[in-house]
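Dear U.,

For the methods section draft, I wanted the exact inputs and outputs in one place so we can describe them consistently. I've listed the two proteins in the order they'll appear in the manuscript figures. Please don't edit the token lines directly; just add comments below if something needs changing.

First protein:
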Amino acid sequence: MKLSGALVLALVAVQAAVLLSAVPSAQASELQVGYYSKKCKGLENVVKWHVVKALKAHRRTGAALVRLLFHDCFVRGCDGSVLLDKSYDNPHPEKDAPVNIGLAAFDLLEEIKADLEHRCPGVVSCSDILIYAARDAASFLSNGHVHFDVPAGRLDGFVSKAEEAQAELPDSTDDVEKLIKNFARKNFTVEELVILSGAHSIGQGHCSSFTGRLSEPADQITPAYRELLKYKCSSGSNPPVVNNVRDEDYNTVGRFMPGFVSRLRKVPDFLDNSYYHNNLAKIVTFHSDWTLLTQKEALGHVHEYADNGTLWDEDFSDSLVKLSKLPMPAGSKGEIRKKCSVINHRLY
């Protein structure tokens, strides 16, 4: 097909604009608390308003936001790469990786982005919006016990590959030594691995993520809980199951674990240290949770946070800040996307 001279010039202009808008990504030391105080006044209030409204309507959205923060930042740094949809140029983005099954809250982030584009066009990155939104979700779900100031100034990346996500994210079937090595590659300690695992006090996982748990022995999973999981997984094709048995429905727990009924929570998805109590009782969903009990240092920290919920609130907040500072690969460039699901030149 022969292109007209005008069309060729237009395409060249678009590509040139994209290249000019791409700038080197910020390093962790360059991120600043209050980065948008003059660039987009009221930004944090806008994000919080949308998040609180969404969580009041559907509380589990909060867990989805916290999970998105981890799944974005652990792959290529905090660059919003997990938010990108598939395209002709990139048919297999991060969100399509098996390890990313069940990721959600994308529509909420687009809603926030659209509002901010109206107020401050071309100023606030989607990667920063995700960190603010996840922070506000964690605060809401913990009644304010988990909270931190957000260092900002990130750019949105151009690269998003499912194979990278699959290779870099920890898997729910991993043993403790593999988890330790994986987190060490991102400069996280054994203690921080245990701290961040505490996020499994909220949210849900698909049965395909813990199939192996359904046949593990009694010294790894409480038999009554194993039977409960089998029952839940038999209800459909790879259904989601809550991560925290304290959020299960009354009738199911009454049938399989009647002695646990009094511990059920009236408000689900409460972000607290209950994960550690559950783990010590061997009533956690994922093998990667139980395996923390098999390594001396990790086990010590599981006991530490089971005994001190306030300490976990503080350390989890600090660990989320550290996670949010993971940089893009050296030499990467970024932009401020107009929509979180697509890089800018795809909009033309």
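Second protein (the one for the lower panel):
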Amino acid sequence: MPWATTLILVLAGLCGSSLGQYNEEEDLAWLQYYLRQSRVSSYNYVPYYEEESPAYAYSYPSATDTEPEPEPEPQQAAPWRCPQECDCPPNFSSAMYCDTRNLRYLPFVPSRMKYVYFQNNLITSVQEGAFDNATELEWLALHNNQIGSEKMGKRVFGKLQRLERLYMNNNNLTRLPGPLPRSLRELHLSYNHISKVPSNALEGLENLTALYLSHNFIFEMGASLKGLKSLILADLSYNNLRKVPDGLPASLEQLYLEYNYINAIPDDYFQVSPRLLYVRMSHNSLTNQGLSSNTFNSSSILELDLSYNRLQKIPRVNTNLENLYLQGNQINEFSISSFCSVVDVMNYSRLQVLRLDGNAIKRNAVPPDAPLCLRRATVIEI
């Protein structure tokens, strides 16, 4: 057995470490690192600014021996080493926790990292090349910081071809970051200052399943959702939209548009999304004049929230609908034809919850054939 391997086994036994953590190619690097640690080595991080070079610098105290040990190359020195500002659990070696530490800069990310957490800090910028060394990243958490769009590198995510989840909610972004990796599955951008989403802003994100853009100032979406072939959830609530996005993807299952200023929906708008289950459009400006007779007559929708709009009549819905929320409108009549085009033993609505409270309907205005049509209903509030 080589003397280096023997010594590593002894040292590993003394410090309670498992040699299984290291492969044979890393034996000598691990030994050198241990010997340096015994002489009290240090890690110095230098924040990067555009006018400074290089981006990162590492320094090691000279050894006390007469013949100093050669220093490694800056970018190749202990790539598995954790920055002193962060925690890298030994039992989860691909994760780096740098959250809630009042950091104002991004520490160096070792190449082995897949999950990196920078949330709840005071970071204001993401410099170009910040993640070029960490091409294996899958989760990147940058939420609850002070990052502005003008202080983000133009291609900062360019080399992250395995990134699946990006969290940048609760920052100071005024536009969508990009270009974004095609591998992305979840994009969290809520609670920013974004005002517009260009039609090509999400181009190429065919793996994206969840898009969170709530609590921004978006007034225009264009056709930015149309090409997202895998999108399941789109949260555009609490914005300044005056019209629905131009075209929905066929894969969509959940659409949240509440707290906007939408006053109309095109005919057959939801028909292009045959998997759509949940539609929430409460607190908008919808009127019956802005809806066609078949706008919500989609057989897939199970829950429809149209509360707190300006509707005067109950819109026609499909018999497969299970939950309908219409409270807080201006509805003055209970039209059973909105739920059942034909009322008999074989034709009835699957509706379970119907809320009509906060309207102008009187309790005695319920038609006599309502119990037959709405026989599945367990909650009807007027």
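Candidate sentences for the figure legend, describing the second protein: The helical segments are 3-14, 27-38, 370-373. The radius of gyration is 29 Å.

Thanks,
Y.
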